[in-house]
Design a protein that fits this description.
Blueprint: H1 2-12, E1 35-40, H2 46-56, E2 60-66, H3 69-78, E3 83-87, H4 96-106, E4 112-116, H5 121-130, E5 136-140, H6 147-158, E6 162-164, H7 166-180, H8 189-199, H9 204-211, H10 217-229, H11 239-252, E7 257-258, E8 264-267, E9 273-275
Parallel strand pairs: 1-2, 1-3, 3-4, 4-5, 5-6
Antiparallel strand pairs: 7-8, 8-9
Amino acid sequence: MAKTIAMLTLAYLGRPVSFAPHTAHEPARLSASLLRLLLVEDNSRLRPALASGLEATEAVRVIGMCGSGEAALDLCLSDPPDVILMDVQLETELDGIAAAVAIRRELPRLPVVFYSIQDDDAYYRSFRRAGILTHYAYVRKSNYLLPELIVPLLRDAVAGGGFVDAEIAERVQEVKEKDERAPLALLEPNEQIVARLLARGLSNEQIAARLGFRDKRTISRVNGQIYAAWGLDASTTDEKIARTRATLIMHAGRLLRWDDRGGVYAVDARGEWAAFDLAGDVE
């Protein structure tokens, strides 16, 4: 990461930098017009260098810079820009995705180009759940080192386009598929709460007391719904075994299946059931 930051700084300052040319599809270029840009970047070294590099293209005027989502929201409300160049990881708890959602709630479909070095499932999950449809781009910094590569993204977002870097699109899809296979996604909210408490080793009586139920049989019924949703009712009729397996599923964070001999299986990267080592990986 440090090497990438150094390369980015050199690129923004207009100094020679060696990198493999980006060959992925780029958004269509529009006729030149000066864009009023808000730059949101948490790295204090990169921020001024990037601003200088963008303004040197004579296509952008940076009207504001900040390093947090909260500051970005305040700046947008006081003086709305034409477009935002938004880092995904920011200084405070409000990340770039959440900041964009908050900003676009006040200023609908304000163009945003997400620009990130991070490769974290949480950001891809947030982006997917944000439901952003138009006036955006999401790219990896290492694929768009030069300001001249960023400007077309800004213009395309302003024009209403939607562009996702191929590498990021692949990771977003991976997270989507992972989430769709997540055990909790198959449960209703009250069932999710019970499953979490079950996985922490609480008895039905303790769960009922924790949730304010007077009859522990309510929890037994909820457990039955959990076992059915996870296919455990088909592999065992023993409640203790089903409970143990439900706990293992919660800790594994993925659906598991057991055969008649006790072999454990999980869906692999190809979408097929494969032998699974409960200590870690698909065998």
